[in-house]
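Before the break, one more example. Copy the sequence into your notebook; we will annotate it together after we see the structure.
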Amino acid sequence: MGSFNQQSSGRVPKTCPSGVRYTVKPGDSMFFIAQRFGISLKALIGANPHIANPAEIFPGDVLCIPIKSADGRVPGKCPKGFGGRYTVRSGDSMFLIAKRFGVSLETLIAANPHISNPAEIFPGDVLCVPKYYGMYKPYSMILNYQEE
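Here is what the structure looks like once it is written out:
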């Protein structure tokens, strides 16, 4: 019973040099997570020495994902009116980003065709976001925003 409680509370790395952390969900495996982030299984295992047996990960475990922001998906060109770019951070979703920028979810998805599955965005992905026209929060208040 003691080991179950330890596993369910999650193992967390002391440091994560890549800066990208991922919390394991039910049904995840190291292989599946590596595929999701487009990295090798070997790289994922190497970045997580706190996981003694990579075949046994549990919901709540926190993994370091060895990618840098530049490794995310980046749009070639943003559509008219979407002259800004936003770098996705941990915890973001397309819905939350659309709300933050005052645009409909459908419009944000349409402006970012380089994201094949809008339900799966990852830290380091770059999204086209609308320019500020005075109706919503100034971009200086929105983290990770860059004018194009």
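The two ends are 54 Å apart (CA to CA). The first strand starts at residue 21 and ends at 23. Try to locate both features in your own notes.
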